[in-house]
Automatic annotation (TrEMBL):
Signal peptide (from-to): none
Gene expressing this chain: grpE
Function: Participates actively in the response to hyperosmotic and heat shock by preventing the aggregation of stress-denatured proteins, in association with DnaK and GrpE. It is the nucleotide exchange factor for DnaK and may function as a thermosensor. Unfolded proteins bind initially to DnaJ; upon interaction with the DnaJ-bound protein, DnaK hydrolyzes its bound ATP, resulting in the formation of a stable complex. GrpE releases ADP from DnaK; ATP binding to DnaK triggers the release of the substrate protein, thus completing the reaction cycle.
Originating species: Tepidamorphus gemmatus
Superkingdom of this protein's organism: Bacteria
Name of the featured protein: Protein GrpE
Keyword flag Coiled coil: yes
Biased composition (Low complexity): 205-215
A GO cellular component entry from the record: cytoplasm
Record keywords, A-Z: Chaperone, Coiled coil, Cytoplasm, Stress response
Coiled coil: 42-80
Length: 221
């Protein structure tokens, strides 16, 4: 009877013993809260401010780039809008110059007053046309004696001439024109060959004379 009672008491105490291992879990549940408490809120706020400041600076820089690009496009549109018209009107000036060149000095000296007045009128018209074009940013290129530039000149032929450096413009067949910073029409020229070799360009382009006929870089407006 006594032994049976002892066994019953032992069995009754078993649930309490089995429940004891669950006690440490309570202490483990508090560790995430302590970890969150260890984070410095000031440092987190500073990091967030730095990130927002970086984003703001990037947005400002991007907006500034867009503004400059828009201004450049508007400026170019205004400056180069007349490119096609200006290129077409150049033939008028070319024809006036050809007409004047057909009259030699002797013929002009022997001409009567009426013909001389006509020539002077054509010359005046040509000058006025060039002035109007220049007021709109179109300038004439007369490169005789200059070094050949493939960006502004188109080599039509070569002339043997050892008195000047190779690649020097010795004859202008047709003058060229620029509009703003662009080439509106390249000057058609004849260049020398056989002379001293010019020094290489500082901008990395080949020396004049190395560009054969048709070697012009097309950068027309």
């Amino acid at each position: 009877m006594t032994e049976h009672k002892h066994n019953a008491e032992s069995q009754a105490g078993t649930p309490e013993t089995a429940a004891e291992p669950s006690a440490p879990q309570a202490s483990g549940d508090g560790e995430p809260a302590r970890a969150e408490a260890d984070i410095d809120p000031t440092a987190a706020l500073r990091a967030e401010i730095a990130d927002l400041k970086d984003r703001l600076m990037r947005s400002i820089a991007e907006a500034e780039n867009l503004r400059k690009r828009a201004e450049r496009e508007v400026r170019d549109a205004g400056q180069y809008a007349i490119s096609k018209f200006a290129r077409d009107i150049l033939s008028v000036g070319d024809n006036m110059r050809r007409a004047l060149d057909t009259v030699g000095a002797e013929a002009r000296a022997a001409a009567d007053a009426t013909f001389v007045a006509l020539l002077e009128g054509v010359e005046l018209t040509e000058r006025e046309l060039l002035n109007v074009l220049e007021r709109h940013g179109v300038k004439r290129i007369d490169p005789k004696g200059a070094r050949f530039d493939p960006n502004l000149h188109q080599a039509m032929f070569e002339v043997p001439d050892e008195s000047v450096p190779a690649g020097t413009v010795v004859q202008v067949v047709q003058p060229g024109y620029t509009i703003g910073e662009r080439c509106l029409r390249p000057a058609m020229v004849g260049i020398s060959r056989g002379g001293p070799r010019p020094a290489a360009r500082q901008d990395g382009e080949p020396a004049a004379g190395e560009e054969a006929t048709g070697g012009r870089i097309d950068r027309t407006a």
